[in-house]
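Could you show me just one protein sequence together with its fold in token form as a worked example?
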Amino acid sequence: MIPFVALDSSEMKNHKKDTCKCCICKAIRGEGAGKNNPFYGKKHNEKTRKKLSIFATNRIGKNANNYIDGRSSIKGLILCSNKHKTWRKKVFKRDNYNCQECIKINEELKKELGLE
């Protein structure tokens, strides 16, 4: 793999993204997506899944990447709470998935909310 090297603005103008072999240009072109991904069609074994699970659970609270002195926005805490999520689903179900402000048809709203 060719390492990524930062280019200044004059070099970026002449940078040929179509033929460049760096990992960033390959990702932009989508060369590592789908069947071209080396991990496509494979699965992690049980041992690896346990390691990944432990790693993920250890990244909560103070161990999380974006942790800053215990600060969390109240809005973020509310929107991520299970109570809010269940309330939101109940309201959409009650209103038959019709938006009360813009009167969107329920199929459009379901797609927009990712419920289909």
